[in-house]
Specification:
The chain is α+β, with helices and mostly antiparallel strands and 184 residues long. The protein has a domain at 66-175: Ribosomal Protein S8, Chain: A, domain 1 (2-Layer Sandwich). The chain has helices spanning 9-18, 80-87, 104-120, 140-151; strands at residues 72-74, 95-98, 125-129, 155-160, 170-175. It has a five-stranded mixed sheet, with helices on both faces. The longest helix is centred in the middle third of the chain and has 17 residues, at 104-120. The chain is elongated and about 95 Å long. The N and C termini lie far apart (68 Å).
Length: 184
């Protein structure tokens, strides 16, 4: 049974002294606001038709890659198993983009259109063939793709392809799953 503790006369006197100048509030017409309804979540497609890869930075802060260098990238928090399976070719490639012979501008636009289609079709595992470059020069498209993919939030991981897919001349990309993405 809960009994109220006894309050001593000294505590009562102290309380009354503290409350001596306090006046009760006048009654008011209190209005309680309606609770806010949560706003419906609108899923944005990974890349919408208004977003262009031309908005991506071309200022590369990464060390330049040579034609034989292997590339690997994963967002923080991504399971190691996913990158390992990507690296060993355990996922089925659902779409391929071949950028051979394209300029940087053409490759950027092709990549944009490719990602639009991948998002529309809800693809997760794609292959981008960028080539190894010409001669002793650094491979321009390989370096651009490596840089651009890191900037796109819908790209969760990527790595150099397996030998049968092009090894250092191609990248296997693991895309974020987008539910309900629709495009005009």
């Amino acid at each position: 049974m809960n009994k109220k503790p006894k309050i001593s006369d000294a505590d009562k006197a102290l309380f009354e002294a503290a409350m001596r100048h306090v006046k009760p509030l006048a009654p008011s017409k209190k209005i309680t606001p309606e609770p806010e309804r949560p706003k419906p979540r609108v899923r944005k497609p990974a890349i919408d038709s208004e977003t262009s890869l031309s908005a991506l930075s071309d200022f590369e802060t990464l060390d330049p890659l040579s034609s034989d260098d292997l590339v690997e990238f994963a967002r923080p928090g991504l399971q190691n198993k996913i990158l390992r399976d990507l690296r060993t070719g355990k996922y089925n490639i659902e779409a391929i983009l071949d950028l051979h012979g394209m300029t940087v501008v053409e490759a950027r636009e092709a990549l944009h259109q490719f990602f639009l289609q991948c998002t529309k079709r809800r693809l997760r595992h794609v292959l981008i063939i960028h080539g190894k470059g010409r001669g002793d020069q650094k491979p321009i498209l390989k370096n651009k793709i490596n840089h651009w993919l890191r900037q796109l939030s819908e790209v969760l991981a990527f790595c150099s392809a397996t030998g049968r897919e092009g090894r250092s001349g191609a990248m296997v990309v693991y895309l974020k799953q987008v539910k309900g993405a629709t495009f005009p």
